[in-house]
């Protein structure tokens, strides 16, 4: 992990490419989540033969109704205070505090949704069919934008990986030329060739994944969890029960792959050594 940290430090020398890769990853994650969110509107709005302005207005009416109910309960609780004893007063004050907090939360929701309702009444379609058309258009446009940012992100991450590979190979080559003779007796040319090609390529691919997949995928997961919690937090909790089991299985698989990859690199060094010996001595063998 320490060596990979050095690889990331090398990649940070190319700040503009890193910034472009991160921006494209963030854009892909946001648009990916943005393409999922309209499905909620299709299911909860269009399928119930409503438009978005009507759905938002009904939500505001429901909040206002609940505010009225909470206000009536507050009046009733406050009227009980003068005639209650000390123990009952403490209980009533506790209930009043809870009701006031609930009322404040509902009033904040109403205030937050008022600009949204004005925007919906002014700009959004007023029929379910037109709402469905807008949602489908947004999904198509979002998919096209997401694909464009994905292509751009692939370009910048590939560029970054190649730049990192170039820096690593130059540094590796300079350091190899400065090694003493004893090191060359202990290290075969095949092992050096393997490190110069395969190891450097693996490191550069890892840098590409960090600025591409490793940052993009967690952001997509966080966005999906947020949308899922918005739709139904109860179902989300049930789904997350399987997360520890999946994490344990992935961890076991990662360890097995690491051992297998280490063994494969050792075998590859042996193959490079045999190829180097074969190609270097081929002229002499053929001549005799």
Quick description:
The chain is 90% helix and 0% strand. The protein has 288 residues and is mainly alpha-helical.
Cα-based radius of gyration, to the nearest Å: 31 Å
Structural class: mainly alpha
Distance between the termini: 50 Å
Residue stretches low in confidence (pLDDT < 50, at least 5 long) are: none
Q: Please tell me the overall pLDDT.
A: 79
The number of helical elements comes to: 9
What global shape is seen? elongated
Number of strands: 0
Characterize the main sheet. none
What is the helix fraction of residues, given as a range? over 70%
Strand content: under 5%
Task: Give the helices and strands as they follow along the chain.
Answer: HHHHHHHHH
Question: What is the secondary structure topology, with strand pairs?
Answer:
Layout: H1 2-11, H2 15-44, H3 52-80, H4 86-123, H5 128-177, H6 181-186, H7 189-211, H8 213-240, H9 243-287
Helix pairs in contact: 1-7, 2-5, 2-8, 3-4, 5-7, 7-8, 7-9
Describe this structure in words.
The chain has 288 residues and is mainly alpha-helical. It has nine helices and no strands. Helix 1 (2-11) crosses helix 7 (189-211), helix 2 (15-44) runs parallel beside helix 8 and helix 5 runs antiparallel to helix 7. The mean pLDDT is 79.
């Amino acid at each position: 992990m320490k060596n990979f940290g050095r690889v990331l430090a090398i990649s940070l020398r190319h700040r503009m490419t890193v910034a472009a890769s991160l921006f494209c990853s963030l854009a892909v994650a946001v648009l990916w989540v943005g393409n999922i969110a309209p499905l909620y509107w299709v299911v909860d709005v269009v399928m119930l033969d409503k438009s978005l302005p009507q759905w938002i207005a009904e939500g505001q009416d429901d909040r206002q109704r609940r505010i009225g109910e909470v206000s009536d309960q507050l009046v009733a609780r406050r009227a009980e205070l003068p005639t209650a004893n000390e123990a009952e007063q403490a209980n009533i004050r506790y209930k009043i505090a809870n009701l006031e907090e609930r009322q404040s939360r509902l009033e904040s929701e109403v205030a937050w949704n008022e600009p949204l309702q004005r925007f919906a009444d002014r700009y959004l379609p007023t029929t379910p069919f037109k709402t469905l058309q807008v949602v489908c258009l947004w999904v198509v446009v979002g998919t096209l934008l997401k694909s464009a940012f994905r292509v751009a992100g692939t370009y910048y991450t590939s560029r970054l990986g190649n730049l990192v590979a170039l820096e690593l190979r130059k540094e590796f080559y300079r350091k190899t030329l400065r090694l003493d003779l004893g090191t060359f007796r202990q290290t075969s040319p095949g092992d050096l060739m393997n490190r110069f090609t395969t190891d450097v390529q693996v490191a550069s691919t890892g840098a590409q994944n960090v600025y591409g997949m490793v940052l993009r995928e967690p952001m997509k997961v966080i966005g999906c969890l947020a949308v899922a919690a918005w739709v139904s937090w109860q179902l989300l909790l049930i789904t997350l029960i399987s997360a520890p089991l999946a994490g344990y299985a992935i961890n076991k698989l990662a360890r097995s792959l690491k051992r297998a990859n280490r063994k494969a690199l050792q075998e590859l060094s042996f193959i490079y050594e045999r190829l180097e010996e074969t190609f270097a001595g081929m002229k002499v063998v053929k001549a005799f």
